[in-house]
Specification:
The chain is globular and about 60 Å long. The protein contains 7 helices and 17 strands. Helix 1 (21-32) packs antiparallel against helix 3. It is an alpha+beta fold. The protein starts with a strand and ends with a strand.
Length: 298
């Protein structure tokens, strides 16, 4: 096993996987076999790409990721490839993120882009209909897939590039570290069905219904929540969501850290919430992100 596995400086729950340049060099040739177009149009090519990635690390990378993501005590890995050399371009990062995803499961169709992944920018000026691209607002803690019918077991976010960026740190919170988990997960309102919609940019025409809190196979609480998309049916639901939002954002156990360019956050979507701090204003601000979300093979 040639990758380095350590605990994150801010939390023992978060594992850091460092991929060195020599190993990444071994991926250049097998990755060139697959263009981005072939990966988008031929799903089986993504499995071939993932196998090439795993073989470079003696088939230990897939086992390590599965163990981290399925363990309630951990559940998040940050993958930090050594890509300072310009030979590792943004296409390489798309392929690396694809390989990581297909080591553990099948990505969902992303309606926003019509692909198995989404790439999008956060810039100084924005006219979108989603907090996702609002650079100078906090992106509050949330989980993904709240407004779609598909299961969303896990989430990948890769920082592709950034320019003129100050602020915008990643923020995550493990459900079991949240001070108000027992109070709000056991509240009967949190177990009611809420209506969840989405803005036009998501390209999802339907709405879904599900509770904020449910339980996993071990009887532990899991969450499906984002502040922009629920449509409260009445006063008690509206007030519950406000209480929930305040309790999450005021948590003293949030983990905040800068994510290096080229790095990936890979998280279990049921017991980790994620968000982003606001950026400091700059007319040339630009950050490109890649997102993949999906289900485990098993």
């Amino acid at each position: 096993m040639s990758f380095e596995l350590t605990n994150h400086n801010n939390s023992d729950r978060v594992k850091v996987i460092k991929l060195n340049e020599n190993d990444l060099d071994k991926l250049i040739f097998p990755f060139k076999k697959h263009s981005l177009t072939s990966l988008e149009y031929k799903p089986f090519s993504r499995f071939s790409l993932a196998k090439s990635l795993d073989e470079v690390f003696q088939n230990n990378l897939s086992k390590t990721l599965e163990e981290i993501l399925n363990n309630r005590g951990t559940g998040t890995a940050i993958i930090e490839p050594d890509i300072k050399n310009k030979k590792f371009d943004k296409d390489f990062l798309v392929k690396l993120s694809t390989g990581l995803a297909y080591l553990v499961g099948n990505p969902n169709f992303d309606s926003m882009t019509g692909k198995y992944y989404a790439r999008f920018y956060v810039k100084h000026q924005d006219s979108s209909d989603s907090y996702l691209r609002k650079a100078y607002n906090n992106l509050d803690l949330h989980t993904d897939g709240t407004y779609v019918k598909e299961k969303t077991d896990w989430l990948i976010m890769t920082k592709m590039e950034e320019q003129n960026v100050s602020g915008g740190e990643s923020v995550i919170l493990h459900l079991d570290d949240w001070e108000h988990l027992e109070e709000l997960s056991k509240d009967p309102i949190g177990q009611e069905n809420f209506i969840w919609g989405s803005p036009k940019s998501k390209n999802v025409e339907y709405k879904v219904e599900h509770p904020v809190f449910s339980k996993d196979k071990f009887g532990k609480p899991i969450i499906s929540y984002i502040d922009q998309f629920p449509e409260p049916k009445n006063m008690k639901q509206g007030l519950y969501l406000q209480k929930l939002s305040d309790a999450l954002e005021h948590s003293k156990n949030k983990i905040c850290f800068p994510l290096p360019v080229g790095s990936t956050i890979f998280s279990n979507n049921y017991f980790w919430l994620h968000g982003r701090k606001a950026f400091k204003e700059h007319s040339g601000l630009s950050r490109e992100l890649l997102r993949i979300r999906g289900t485990f093979f098993n």
